[in-house]
Amino acid sequence: MNLITGLQNSELSSVLSASAATVNAHVHAPLAVLDLTSAIEIVQNLPATVVDQVHNLLSQLSPEAIYELAKNSVIQLQSFGIDDFLAGAPIVLSLVVLEGLLSVDNAMVLAAMVRHLPKDEQQLALKAGIAGAYVGRISMLGAAAWIIGNPWVKLAGGGYLIYMMVSSLGVSEEGEGEEESHAGKGGFWATVVAVEFADLAFSVDNVAAAVAMSDKMWAVITGVMLGILAMRFVAGLFIGLIEKYPVLEKIAYLLVGWIGILLVLEEQDLFEANELTKFASISAIIAAGMLYDQVPAVNKAMKPAVTWTGELFGNIYELTSDVLAPVGAILRPVLSYAGNVAGDLWETTSHLAKPLIYLGSRPYAVGRYVRQACFSNSNSTKQISASPEDLSVVEDTAEVSSENESK
To answer: Which residues, listed in sequence order, are joined to residue 178 by a DSSP beta bridge?
Structure first.
C-alpha cells in the first residue's frame, strides 16, 4: 500500500469520522459528525493562553534557535584549547554519571515499552528512539531557559508519565486481570513514537539539572549525549532482565508514575527531592517489587494493597480516557498515517540500500560478472553463466544482507 501520495481532506475527514464513531459510546458529544472543518474550529477555539504558550514553544524550538546554539558551539570550538578541555572534562564526567543515575528508571521503562515487539525489532526500536532522543534533547537544551521559566512544561511532562503508569497497571474492578497497556504497546512505529514522548518527558528534569551545572554548553551537550548513549545500552540489558523477571515491567511503570508525581509536587513547591533522595526512592521501589514477586510472605501481606491500587488506577484510566477521547479521535488517525508513511519510507530505503551493500561488499565479483556480460565474444542469444565462485558470493552476500536487515 502506497501511503506516500499524500492525504486529501476528504480522506482525513472519513478517517476522523470513523475514529469518532469508536469513541462515541464513551463520550456524549456528537463526535460522529466530526470532520476536518470541525477539527480546525476546535483548534481555533482554544483559549488564547494555550495558543500563546504553544506559539512561544515553537518559536523557542525554531530553526533559528537551534542555529544560534550550533553557532555558539562552533565559536567555542574555534577558541578551544587544552585549558578548556581540562576545565570541561570534570563537567562531562559528572553529567555522564548524573545521566546514568537518573536513567536507571528510564532504561527499565524503554525496555518494557519495546518488549512486546518481535525480537528482531526490539533493538531497532531502541536505536530509532534513542536517535530521536538526541535531536529532542539538543532542542530542549537550546530552550532550557524557556523550559525552566515555564512551570506548565514540568506539569505536562509529569502528567504524561502518571498517565503512562495508570494506563499500564490499571485493572478492572472485578480484578479479572490487567488491562492492555496503552503506553508503549502497538506497532513498531507507534512504539518508537511512545519511546520518544517518554524520553522527552524524562528529559525535563535532566536538562534543567544539566544546564544548572555549567555554562560551558559544549561540555553540557557532550555529557548529556554520552549519558543518552549509555542509557541505550543499559536498556538493551534490561530487556533480558525483564524476560527473566516479568515483574520488572510493572516496576518500570511504577517508576514512571513516581517520577511524574515528583515532577508535579516539585513544581507546586509541595516537595523537594535531591538526586540522592530520588535514587534512594527508585531503589526502594525496585526492591519492594522484587520482594513482592519472589517472597510468598511479602506477596500475601501486600496483595490487598496491590489489588486496591490496581483498581484505583483502572478507574483513573477510564475517567481520563473519556475526557481525552475527543483529542484522541483527532490525533490518532493523523499519527497512524504518519507512522505508516515512516514505515513505507523505511522499507523503500531498505530495498534501495541492498544493491548498494552488495556492490560495496563484493566489487571484484561484480566486476567480473559485468566484464563477462559486456565483453563476451559469444553471440547475443548465448546465455551468460556465472562461475560457481560468483554464485557462492551472491548467496553469501544475500545471507549477510538478510542478517543486517534483521538486526
So the answer is: 171
Residue owning grid cell 481555533: 44
CA–CA separation, 321 and 27 (whole Å): 10
DSSP designation for 173: T
Q: Where are the beta strands (DSSP E) in 228-310?
A: none
**121's torsion region: left (phi>0), alpha (psi -120 to 50) or beta?**
alpha
Q: Please, what is the angle between helix 217-244 and helix 247-267, to 10°?
A: 140
Q: What is the pLDDT along the chain (407 residues), one digit of tens a residue?
A: 333 334 444 444 454 454 444 444 444 444 344 445 555 555 555 555 555 655 565 565 556 666 676 676 666 655 655 666 666 666 666 666 556 555 555 666 666 777 777 777 777 777 776 676 667 767 776 666 666 667 777 787 778 778 878 887 877 555 444 444 444 455 676 777 777 776 666 666 566 656 555 556 666 677 667 766 766 666 667 667 777 888 887 887 787 788 788 878 877 778 777 767 777 887 888 888 889 988 999 889 988 888 888 888 888 888 877 777 777 677 667 666 666 666 666 667 656 655 655 555 555 555 565 556 555 544 444 444 444 444 444 445 445 444 554 54
> CA 79, CA 81: separation in Å to the nearest integer?
6
Residue 89 identity: A
Query: What are the structural domain ranges in the chain?
Result: 1-45+295-361, 51-286, 363-406
CA distance 261 to 267: 10
For residues 137 and 203, is the Cβ–Cβ distance under 8 A? yes
Residue 79 and residue 76: Cα distance in Å, rounded?
6
Structural contact between residues 167 and 270, judged by C-beta atoms closer than 8 angstroms: no
Euclidean distance between CA atoms 53 and 48, whole angstroms = 9
Burial 284-313 (b: 16+ CB within 10 A, else e): ebbeebeebeeeeeeeeebeeeeeebbbeb
First-last CA distance in the chain? 24
